[in-house]
Amino acid sequence: MTEPLVKITDLSLWYEKYRALDCINTEFDSGKCIVICGPSGSGKSSLLRCVNRLEDFQEGDVFFDGQSLRECSDIAALRSNIGMVFQHFELYPHMSVLDNITLAPRWAKKKPKEAAETHAMALLDRVGIANQAKKYPAELSGGQQQRAAIARALALEPKLMLFDEPTSALDPEMIVEVLRVMRDLAQDGMTMLVVTHEMAFAREVSDEIIFMDEGRIVERKATPDFFTNPHSRRAQDFLDRILMKI
Amino acid sequence: MDWAVIPANLPFLMKGLWVSFQLAIFVIVISFPLACVIAVGRVSSRWWIRFPSATFVNAMRSNPLILIVFWFFFLVPLIIGRPVGDFASVMIAFVVFFSAYFTEIIRSGIQSVDRNQIQAGLSTGLTYFQVMRMVVLPQAMRNMMPALVTECIIIFQGTTIAYVVGLREFLNSTFLVTERTIRPVELYLFAALVYFVVCFAGSCLARYLEKKKVRTQ
Amino acid sequence: MEINYDFDWSMLLEDPNRQWIIEGLLTTVYLSLLAWLIALTVGIVIGAIRMTPSRTLRIIGTVYVEFFRNIPFLVQLFIWFFVFPLLLPHDWMLTWNRLPHVPFLTALIGLSLFTAARVAEHIRSGISSIPKGQFDAARSSGLTQIQMYRHVIIPYAFRVMIPTIASEFLTIFKNSALTLTVGVAEITSAAKSIEAWSFRGVEAYTVASVTYMTTTASVVLFMTWLEHRLRIPGLIAKK
Fold it and tell me: What is the pLDDT of residue B46?
């Protein structure tokens, strides 16, 4: 049995008095695509943001590749091995798409400009928007922007990709193009943690599903199992509501 | 240093401070309604109303207050045909000058309210006038409150300019006492402290209103 | 109502009026430009200080801003002119008094430090107008704090702040008129002198007003052009 890529032990997170995460213990293996779902306010995004310490958790620890995040002295270097994709894309509006992608490789990973750009172009090609490289983010459609943001995260050559509701801000016809890119990525063996409400995507692509509620992991199951046989009452209700749309 | 100079002259200084307050309050009370009228003209769809109001606002805002004071000092007696006294000239200059600044605040307050709010109000069967009074204006008021309070502080600070025409407000009173006692260090630092306390309290109020505004949006 | 006033514009071209006007214009421009440059420099430093993790530095920055913003500029000017030299050590004071153009220097210090507080405040609100997600995106990609500010936050904030930086120049330009109270012979002061000598207020004040209004108009035009040049393609400017 190899070491898991991410290991979370007794993790708790407070916002002031509000407890967002309540003593989380779990781990994620390399090469798996894991979907985190649950009602809003259940702590899904918080959990995701703890994995690269965008949230400063108060208790417990997260280990990435064996390295403790709490004790990590160079968090920037650690983060440069984890890609992250945001709900609102968060492309830098004052830079071209290409510059958006090469920024971190050049400055955080000290890659030469030429190499960074060649790699960026290959990634843009992979997400299908190589012809948009010189444009500015605001000139792109939402779907194109999110694909550019995925390329930007991939440019770090990450060992892990975090997706924080990547399709929630998109129009329905654009969701498909983003999900397709994510599916291809999963099939190539990328380790992915995905917070999403797209249950069709979860069912088709993910290996496991984590269901969260009130800051706790209520249920974690292999994907087919989760859909056919959800254990907890809350997960059942959630599934009913989200699948039946009632 | 000899701080005794301050209690010794306190009644005189406080009289000056009272004049500053009166001046500021008078200017605010007169120029705000005036600005409301000009602001409505500023957003009017008729160019012959919009254009003169815009010209007035821009002319005032691109000149220093002190120059406006000089202008009115010279022009008011000339237009009226007889001397009217320093106090009246300065008041008129202040009112005209600051009404331009109020106008801009009110205008952006009105424009900060989402146009759909009017549609929403009308769709529920309210009249245009009712929508304005009960939907748009309360929101506009809340949005511009912080800026209005800040502007009031600026007006209070601006009253110091009445010094140049010899009006006996707080700064001029301080100046007169320094002339007599030759204690500029104590007196000016005291004046700075008094202005600071008043204006800082105002800034805190503006900041509180700003927070409240952000929270309700 | 009848206005009895004979216009005589040619008197503006006669000496000493012409001399006063030229000197006044130059003084206003020099003073404003110099003060603006110093105010930007100091303002950026204070603005940066207010964003450091050090609590002490942040408090110093805040105290600076609150003090300079909540004391009327004229009072500050008087303090620099009447009080500041008296607080210097004795031989420094003598040196200061022997300097040429003391009123100008006083005005320069006063204007710069007053405006620096406003610049610092604009910088803070410029930075806080940047969506939080931009910080998250930069940090999550492994950029250090300094790299994040240098490549993402500052270039972004700079564009947001262009209008306010320009308007601060205009603030200085207009506030410089107040320095006549400490004896700086700028353009408003020149107009006042002409009026006092010849009682030709309309002509004299028109010169000053035209100066301020044309400068304002040119700066506004220039900034509109600059904003357009630096505009981020596709991004609609938030009003």
Answer: 83
